[in-house]
Amino acid sequence: MNPIHPGPPFAIRQAQNTITLLREGQPLAEISLPFDCQPLEPDRQPEFVELFGAGKRLRWAFEPQAGLRAELWLSVYNDLPFVLLGGRLAATGPAPVLVEDITTCDIVLRRDSHAQSRFLINSGSQGFSGSLPLDAAEVAQSAAEAVAASSETIDLVLTCSTLCAFRGATPDDCLVAGFITVRRAEAFFGRRREGDVFRIQPRIAYDQVQLDRGEALTLETMMLVTDRTAGRALETWADAVAAVLRPQFSRSMLGLYNTWYAYWTPTSDHGDAALWVRGTQELVESGLIHYGIAGSFAGVHHNRAAFGEPEPWPGHFPDGFGPPVREIRARGGVACGGVFWGHVSKCSSLFEQHPEFMIKDADGQPLEQSPVSWGACPHPFYDLDLTDPEAFECLRRVAPRPFAELGIKYFLMDFMGLASRRSKGARPADPKVCWPVEAERRQLAMFKEELGEGAMIGVYTSPTNRFAGLVDRVRLSKDAGVITAVSQLDDAGRGNLAHKTNADFRWEWTQDVARNMAAGYFYNEKLWINDPDPISVGIDDEPQTLEEARVRIMICACSGGFPTVGEPLSRMHPNRMAMLKQALPAYGHAYRCLDLMDQTVPSIHHLHVPQPGGPYELLALFNWNDEPRRFDLDLEAMDLFGAHHGFDFWEQAPLGVLAGRFNHTVPPRAARLLRLTPLAARPQLIGTDRHVTVGALEVGGLCWDAASANLRGVARRPLPETGTLFFAVPEDWSLLDADGLNLRQEDGIVRLELEFTPTGAPWRLAFAPAAGAVGASQAPAQRSLSVSN
Q1: In a domain, 452, yes or no
Q2: Predicted structure pTM score
């Protein structure tokens, strides 16, 4: 079945070595090729005919370097809004060929003016992802620079990997270019503007992989896609990648308690067995273990000061991992493991014992990748040569196997991603392995194999796109950081920026996190589960951090990702604990970012919530400014037609009936969450105060019985909580009975306060049409209910 929704197809106009893509008869982009094309012919590429149906194809060939022939093709489809570009390379000379990075075409966007045009950069890591105006300095980068920057896996230097997007003066003037395969290599995009001409140059990084005579490799396939907005085109790209790769990732939303993060110290020497167990104890005592946070995580189990050690710090696990794992399980928790791997510090025992396992230089010596391992380690680091069979088996024995033997399934990998490149002097043992992509993917596949069925691999401070299909949870942004300034969390000048607690610094840092998460919303549930990092609400109930805590909760909610807690639960104020619980358990569905191509840090996110009792919409509004911001919202532009009841979750305020365009003001440095419920000519639920889905996870069995004019449901939370449901009652309806429940009624709004329970507390409201209303004569005769105002 075709995974892509039909849409206006591209038409093409061919003139020598230029192919013009036409959308509804108008030029959208040009594809500039190395050589002239042959005429259209039937598309017989089996892989894509099966997915997208038969199309037509242009073909051309050229010689990108001596002894190497490239045969390329571009396929168009009759009823689909994209084209595909791919091909193959074949070694034709008598000697082996070292395949350099290859550029297949230039994508040219000509406009009368690019004054309003924007470009979306996808970092392919936790580096900068987001949209920028074309005159921003970060937009301009050559293809060679983009490839070279990809090796900076820790410093996260600006690059554009796998995917990019363009938007012109109007939302529908858009084009997404993205690679939909990860066969052997990662692709990058160079960009440059020449007046009113903007060029995008895709380059596939083969990094001197060796092809012997007669050998061939299939190029990574690129998709060019358009839609009525760039966001929808990005979603189409993600659908296509999912169809091609068919990723089998874990959809578990199990939340984690990262005690290493919560009890961080500047020396980073605290992630021991006792802290691992303490995490589960605090989850039980706080009750969060019932809210979906069951995983205890004491930090990545390698020394923060030396990549490649078998434990975080000497003596932290004197009896191995077994005793704390068994104790965690006895308390009802889930033990989560993890490693640093790929990088090896010079001071580590692994380097001292097996320097021959490292990537070597041309002289056969270990090749230094950086003079500093990371902020807490002033020692050089090296890359493990994953093409060396002995090094690979050493990795298997030391990294995943100790956890696999204990049945640990949740496995988190920090600083994953190799920094070495052949183009920078690296000489892996096997010259026929595409470095680093094939080596990394073999590593991930081996980890999955060792951990067995049900494995969940998460990566952060790592590449993202080139791991698609082999990872389950992916961090798209840098560490989210913390709110509360306490001695255990302050970085004490050591350089761990995630633990700096200056309010202005935190606010800028939080915007970086929000920007990256918004720029990758379309990945969630298609290629993996997005990881937004810990929800930080602060451990003290300080008025000045209330809005910041709400913002951080909403970043996590909009991401659709699983929840992590990174603050000490034993010290958290009850009011902040109650706020944290409003985000738990996680819903798991990402909001669509509506202004991704309008602002560098997006502000408007939309989620459709289907429910048996009737669908509704959620709008998340972020004000990143230091002054109040009035949002002018156009519901019809969001495909929301007709009138809706509005409700502000954080203000716990009904907003009345909204239709067409309306305004909503958000305070400075704050977020607001609106529920929009389609208007019905009867009483209906419009809001709650228990959870950020505003009904989806805390109200079950919602049902309107027209015959009895009863509205019923159950109020459900993981542990007993007192909460409130909000109902809109039209003027021509009267509330008759509430089964003795505590409620208030004012201005057509009924507030029902009740106990939410794990099994679900049933509630019922009985109504009748008011005297003189249509249908009043047919309503059952019941007494009028007196309620307090």
Answers
A1: no
A2: 0.94
- Around Cβ 631, how many Cβ atoms within 10 Å? 17
Query: What domain range includes position 730?
Result: 603-769
- Return the SS3 of 372: coil
- Sheet strands (E) in 610-741: 616-623, 629-634, 644-648, 653-658, 661-666, 670-678, 684-688, 699-705, 710-715, 721-728, 733-737
Of 217, 245, 273, the residue that ends a domain is 245
* Domain count for the chain: 2
- The CATH number for 752's domain is 2.60.40.1180
Range of weakest confidence among 72-76, 220-224, 233-237, 673-677 = 72-76
Omega of the bond leading into 585 within 30 degrees of 0 (cis): yes
- In the structure, how many helices (H) and strands (E) does the chain have? 13, 45
Cα–Cα dist 135/117, whole Å: 9
Tokens 């009792």 correspond to 613
Cα separation of 357 and 399, whole Å? 15
Q: Is residue 5 part of a domain?
A: no
**Is 548 domain-assigned?**
no
Q: What are the tens digits of pLDDT across the range 449-480?
A: 999 999 999 998 889 999 999 999 999 999 89
> What is the per-residue pLDDT across 561-596, written as a single tens digit (0 to 9) for each?
999 999 999 999 999 999 999 999 999 999 999 999
User: Does residue 559 form part of some domain?
Assistant: no
DSSP-derived letter for residue 113 is -
